Amino acid sequence: MRRIALVHTVKSVYDTFEGQLREALGDGFGELKIHNLMDDFLANDPADTGVFSTTNKARLYNDIQAMEMTGAELIVVSCSTLSPTVEEIRPFIHTRIVTIDEAMAHKAVTSATRIGLLVTANSTKIPSQFKLASEAQKAGRAIEVETVHNEAAIQALKAGNREKHDQLVHEMAALLHEPELIVLAQASMAHLEQELAEACGVPVLSSPRLCIEQVKNILSGTQA
After folding, report:
1. In the chain, what percentage of residues exceed pLDDT 90?
2. Helix (H, G, I), strand (E, B) or coil at 93
3. What is the band of 100 on the pLDDT scale with cuts at 50, 70, 90?
4. What is the predicted pLDDT for the residue at 187?
5. Which residues contact 207 (CB under 8 A, 6 or more apart)?
6. Crossing angle of helices 193-200/162-174, nearest 10°?
7. Helix/strand/coil (H/E/C) assignment for every residue in 180-201
8. How far apart are CA 172 and CA 176, in angstroms?
9. For residues 224 and 111, what is the distance between their CA atoms, to the nearest angstrom?
10. What is the DSSP letter of 58?
11. Contact present, 10 and 37 (Cβ < 8 Å)
């Protein structure tokens, strides 16, 4: 039996990611056990305070350590807000960790120079900008990132008003100034990927699909 552990902070991602992952992996990996951990505090608290505190870092470490104890061969952290702290935690965890945004950020910076970044959770704004800059540096690429964020969008989603959320995201995209490519910082925007691409006339990248491709490649041994 193969095991994967998932760490989430947003309910809509918690509800959908495992199903998307199982569909993509199919029956090619034998019996697969997937463990989920939901910790919305790690997204809500930094959104309220503007800081990912030392206490939050310790909390995330405990969450990841708990998932390592499941015996998983891979841990996926599905919240971009957590990505910078995951980099700090990696040396202390024996299990491989994949962050939701690493494949997306790499593809973005190697595909375009002018990137539009849409953010619905303020706690993700700086981590997402940092991730793009870091991946660009690794790839030896110069990029320009224009960020548009609106906290009201994710608040609408949390309140169960997906229609309002989607409307606000479309309005955010319309504010961008001629990007070559658009990056959706939150996995909770992934369902809008295709319609935003059609509306804006440029490629749009969301993290779940690319992360799942990365997980599949790691499990199959085609990605080191």
Report:
1. 81
2. coil
3. very high
4. 87
5. 80, 100, 101, 103, 104, 184, 187, 190
6. 30
7. CEEEECCHHHHHHHHHHHHHHC
8. 7
9. 22
10. H
11. no
Q: How many CB atoms lie under 10 A from the CB of residue 14?
A: 18
Token look-up 């799942």 returns 212
Three-state DSSP state, 27: coil
What distance in Å separates the CA atoms of residue 202 and residue 107, rounded to the nearest whole number? 14
| Residues paired with residue 37 on neighbouring β-strands, in sequence order | 7
Instruction: Supply the DSSP string of 102-115, one letter for each residue.
Output: HHHHHHHHHH-SEE
Helix or strand or coil: residue 144? strand
Q: Coil, helix or strand for 62?
A: helix
Contact present, 85 and 57 (Cβ < 8 Å)? yes
Does residue 42 carry a pLDDT above 90? Answer: yes
pTM metric for this prediction: 0.86
* Predicted confidence band of residue 224 (pLDDT cuts 50, 70, 90): low
Q: What is the DSSP letter of 191?
A: G
DSSP of 1-14, one letter per residue? -EEEEEEES-HHHH
The better pLDDT of the pair 222, 101 is held by 101
Which residue shows structure tokens 């790499």? 106
User: 136 and 201 in contact (C-beta within 8 Å)?
Assistant: no
Dihedral sign of CA atoms 45, 124, 12, 76 in order: negative
